[in-house]
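name: query_chain
kind: protein
chains: 1
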Amino acid sequence: MDILVNLQAFLATADAAGFSAAARKLGVSTSVVAKRVTQLEARIGTALFHRSTRQLRLTEAGQRYVHRARGVVTDATDLLSRMGEKGHDLVDHLRIKAPTSLTVARLADAFSAFQTQNPKLKLDIVLIDRPVDPVTEGFDIAIGAFPHSFGGVVDEPLCALKRLLCASPAYLKKHGTPKHPRDLVEHRCLSFLPTGPEWIFDGPRGRISIQVSPLLSSNEGHVLARSAIAGNGIALLSHYLVADALRDGTLKPVLRDFPIPELWVKAAIPERRRNAAAVQALLSLLKTSLAPSL
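structure:
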């Protein structure tokens, strides 16, 4: 158990960037945390922190091992909690990467319900709008719709993500309605930063790729939706973001004969964590909450 508590001290110190803050987090004295880290460094034969009177920084070795150490501590904690389990309460600490717009619109409620159902769980939810390798960046679950795959990672499909072009009636009246994707180069376009300004369509003769010059780019879909409703341009957006606006006529679909290819929202999980009870429970809830599509 000395190795486990020493690893916990190392992680707390890395997260807090100091022994004192780590000690408060762990509920022990500063000297105890410093001693545990020193013991760990002696065991592995290398320094994990650069120490100075002003700051504490991870060494190259510390940066290399911090994510793996987090995985070891998480696995050990999960095992110990299962061995001592007397009921059905889940005890774990999950680090979750999730996309901003989807979390604000849908996942926040799912995460809240999950923690209500499992009050002993600790959750770290980090909003990131780029592909993430959960192994190297220390996540238990990385949710996203990017097609990237990583070694040592299992991809669990959650739901289809429908997307479309839309604009306000006022914009279309003023600027005209495009008839073909190539017409978009003459229009004011609102683009989602993570997927970029290359817009792809399914046409009657195959895929069509158009490079637009966005008037507005943002990594937050609600910003683009509000701008489209205000009449600022044509936006490529996920359907769940604009479903209400489409129903009430505030926004109108554009280029319906040239649909946007669906993406799939998936959860990327390190192989060593795929069978953890808390991970499986969260996956089940997410599939129920998001199915069959967004």
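note: Residues 60-83 form the longest helix (24 residues).
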